[in-house]
Structures are given as structure tokens and as C-alpha cells.
Amino acid sequence: MSQKAEELFSAHYKINDIKVRSGGIEFKTRLKTACLANILMGSSTRILMRLASFKADGFRRLEEQIKAIDWELYLPLQALPDIRVTTHKSRLYHSTAIADRISPIVHDRLFLKDASRRHDITDPAAITPQTLMVRGENNRFELSLDMSGTPLYKRGVKEKIVKAPLRETLAFAILTRLGLSEKDTLVDPMCGSGTFSLEGAMMQCALPPGALRSFAFETWPGFEEKSIAYARNKLMAAAGACMDTRPLPPISARDLDRTAIDHLKQTCTRHKAFQRICPVCDDFFNIKPPPVTNHQGVVVLNPPYGIRLDRNDDVTVLYKEIGHKLAADFKGWRAGIVCPGRKEFQALNLGLSTMPLFHGGLDLYTAIGVISR
Predict the structure, then answer these.
(1) 20 to 30 Å CA-CA from 328: which of 8, 104, 200, 238?
(2) CATH class of the domain comprising 168-212+245-370
């Protein structure tokens, strides 16, 4: 989270009862603050708003609890949500059957109740999609609405991507771990779709991760459009002032894929924050880094592996060559290198620490630290 975001939270809003739970973090706050969190948080996939929690060991009890929820207070009329159910150790275990019992109850409340307030919508596709998460464990059910809509790693920035891009949330986490600041020179020499470059550009000028996209909560009846618009504009203005008053260093983005570079060049025209990214079609092993002092250089790589490599390519050899190149030309730089496994991490031979990641169904390692050899 950027410094401006932290100031905004600490000065005006309160988040209470923060708890680490399996698969996420739970907290209590006002709806307005939760809406703002969607804009500010860089490493979250989605934010859910809890509607209800109750015991149900049969369909009758489940239906009673669903009917007790004032659905029209949470969802726009005529917006029937996609219902996603998971259960564990519960008498009600059939996810489709549970969804089939919930759906008509919600439908009746949103389509039939208080017809005078219904929207005149002729095209259902025009309604922002909504998702209801239902989780059952040991006969206790939790119902939550997805505030985010499209996953938060989709920043609303890229129009075109290349094969198997790194998620923005992971790039944000890696750059945060490396302590990227506005004074650092960032080099992204295997940039692909430019995820590291774009995230770094936003972070260095304090442009919030969700500033350029929309969210599911924006159509909710309880959404305070004016207050969120004010907060968003304040953050955008702060980012603009940062770009206008501080000479931020250029970001070097390189890749052998001409198509990827062309796509990144197109993306860089979408906002002023990205205009200092310099995409060039070039080979990592041919480049020379710009001079830096006091460890103010950051180099990040997401080398090709898995489906991005030909079957005959030896990924371990590639990582060994990457390690040699970094040791020779990037000594003293802070580095983050995504590795598909421990043997590739060891092949780097750079004496860096590991940061575990989960991406695309794979358990990955990131080599993190200062290149000293």
C-alpha cells in the first residue's frame, strides 16, 4: 500500500478486529472503507463482504435463513448473482442443490418485491455481474458478496497480453518486498506483458492499484458514490503531483518478443504514469544496466518456464546463465527472480533468499535480495 493510501486510512478510517484466516484476512470496517480498500490494496485478489453466518443442517433451515436476508439492501434490483458454493464436513454438501435452493429466493426479492423501485432494464447484460460466495463447514454457512467483481489483479490497464503473464498482485508483492521507492532505477529485462514495469511505475508515483478500473460494489444500493469519488480523486491528484514535482527515473523494459513490446508500448499510452517506461526489443544477455549508487537499482525477472518454453529447452541451464549475467553486470542491485522450482533457484547461485509464491496452480520460488557476488 502506498504512503498516501496509508495516510488516508490512518487519518480518516478505522479497520478493526483484523484476523488471519485460511485463505485470507478478515477485518471489520465501514462499507465506505471497504470500498476504498478495493482501490488501494495491491496484493489482494478480491474483497468479500460478509452478509450472514448461520447453522443449517437441512434445506428447510437454509431456506429460512436465506429468506431472512434483506437482499434488496445489498444488491441492485434485477441483478441476480452468480452463486458459488463450497462445502466441507456438512450435511448439506451438494453445491448445485444448495445454489438451486438459494437462487429462486434471491430472484423473488430482487425481481418481484417493490416493483415501483425496479430499474427499466431491457438488456440483462447491461447489469454489472454480481457474485455470491457460499461456504459451508461443519454445518455452518457463511454468505459473502464479492465487492471487487473482476479479480483485483486485473488493474484495468492492459488491453493485450502475451502467454502466461505474471499476475499483477504477485509483481506488487515482489516489488514491495524489494522496497521499491521513487528513487530506484527499475530494470525489467524479460518484461513480457510488462507487469513488473507497469506495477513499478504505479508504485513509484503512488498511483493506487485500482485507480483505473471499476468494481462490482459501484452498483450496490449502499454505495456512496460521492465519498468514494472524492477519495479516488484525492489519490489521483497526489499521484499527478508526484509525477509533476519529482524527476522519476525511466523504467527499462526489454524482451525478445516483438509483439509483446508492441503491446506494452500501446499500454504505456493509457496513462501519464506509464510514459517513462521504455519498451525495447532486446536480449537480456546483451543489455548493460544503467549506473546506480547506494543499491538504488532494482532488477526483476520472470524468465520463461512451463508452457512458455519449447519442450527441448533446459530451464535449469537458462537460470544458471541468468545467474552469471546478474553476477557480472548487476552486482549491488536488489533483485527479484521468479523460479519454477528449487533447482532453478539453486542454479542462479546468487546467495539470495527465497520468497514462496503460488501462481497459476504452481508453487513457485522468488529469489530475493542484493546481488553480492
Answers:
(1) 200
(2) alpha beta
